[in-house]
Specification:
- Strand 9 and strand 10 form a beta hairpin.
- By secondary structure, the chain is an alpha/beta fold.
- The strands form 3 sheets. Strands 3-4-1-5 form a 4-stranded mixed β-sheet, covered by helices on one side.
- 50% of the residues lie in helices and 12% in strands.
């Protein structure tokens, strides 16, 4: 994922907080608590306290936040001729959402149905018959409620926009106002800290401090975000004005979202206070580790090395294979960063790095220790 910042002055890079963006992440956490183990207590308590009517209404439009993070949660980035930063309150953010024209709003709300044309732009399903048909087909595949919501949105976007604003306001009354008060100071401090770093040390330092997955190629003047998804946008020449906005989230981990819609201001929505290590593995390292574990014999090695340190000779005896073969597999695991070695006298001991393995997933960890 790349963002071209050629010619963009540092003062056009903003760190800001957004109540609406955080509400979107809170709703995602409620719908997908398995993605956010650190928020399990909050999600359980909040879900249990929801009134049945509000819980039912949330299921009608949950595709806006469950499997995708809709751009409707960051409307400031798509409004032409207005402030380039989020509102200071949820009401102000919702006012910015109201300023989006119907075509832009419908395209953002139905983002999951037009992902292939997301960065290219083009007509909205509201006015294009082919995209309208595709939106209905994609919604139908999700179930009757997404299809019903899509039909309502395409037939009468105005009434759906009123309905959605009321839904967000009811969420605010039910749980989000208290939640926002709890996390707002942390997020504001994060934004101030990164802004200060930007002014003192420049964009490369500030972006690197956001996440090790975000880097700046200073020669190419391009921000690179290490994600499995592919996309490109520019922070200059958009209809919403030149600039880049970075928004911290207390609910976001492990998600790192990038808004790169055509003619919208690019936004990087990143997690803070996450349980990840300071330097999370790149996708290249993750691929190397997964490849290393794809061999059944190396899985057997991990089973032994997860319990206690072993020498090469001990592993040869335990697995009934030759020493060169053991060494070859140990080398693969070591290059992938999955094992550590230490010397004890004339012996070299190998052991599974449990910290690294735990980050690959609890199922694997449980599997090798069962």
């Amino acid at each position: 994922m790349t963002i071209d910042i050629t010619g963009l002055p540092p003062e056009r890079i903003d760190f800001a907080i957004s109540p609406l963006a955080e509400l979107g992440m809170a709703l995602h956490t409620l719908s997908e608590p398995g993605h956010h183990p650190a928020q399990h207590g909050w999600a359980t308590a909040t879900a249990a306290s929801l009134k049945p009517d509000l819980a039912d209404r949330l299921t009608e439009a949950d595709f806006l936040w469950r499997t995708t993070f809709s751009d409707v949660f960051m409307p400031f980035a798509g409004v032409k001729g207005h402030a380039r930063v989020p509102g200071t309150s949820l009401a102000e953010d919702l006012d910015r959402l109201d300023r989006l024209d119907d075509e832009t709003f419908v395209s953002a709300a139905l983002e999951f149905t037009c992902s292939s044309t997301y960065s290219a732009g083009g007509p909205s399903p509201l006015v294009n018959a082919e995209l309208r048909s595709r939106a209905r087909d994609m919604a139908a595949a999700r179930g009757p409620k997404p299809l019903e919501f899509t039909d309502r949105l395409l037939a009468d976007p105005g009434s759906v926009r009123v309905w959605l604003r009321r839904l967000f306001e009811d969420c605010d009354d039910a749980f989000f106002r208290d939640t926002w008060q709890r996390v707002r100071m942390q997020l504001a401090a994060e934004a101030r800290q990164k802004t200060d770093l930007l002014h003192r040390r420049g964009p490369a330092a500030a972006l690197g401090a956001v996440s090790s997955a975000v880097t700046l190629d200073e020669e190419a003047r391009r921000i690179e975000v290490d994600k499995l998804s592919v996309g490109h946008t520019s922070a200059v020449g958009t209809e919403a004005g030149a600039g880049l906005t970075l928004i911290p989230s207390a609910f976001g981990w492990p998600h790192l979202w990038v808004l790169y819609a055509r003619n919208w201001r690019p936004v990087i929505h990143y997690p803070v206070g996450s349980p990840e290590l300071a330097s999370p593995a790149s996708l290249e390292v993750l691929q190397r580790r997964m490849d290393a574990l794809s061999h059944p014999l190396r899985m057997q090695l991990c089973r032994f090395l997860g319990r206690t340190p072993y020498t090469t000779v001990e592993l040869t005896d335990a697995l009934n294979i030759t020493a060169p073969e053991v060494s070859r597999h140990l080398t693969v695991l070591k290059k992938a960063g999955l094992i550590t070695t230490r010397r004890r006298g004339r012996y070299v001991l190998h052991q599974l790095d449990m910290t690294v393995v735990a980050r690959l997933g609890s199922d694997f960890l449980e599997g090798v220790l069962r």
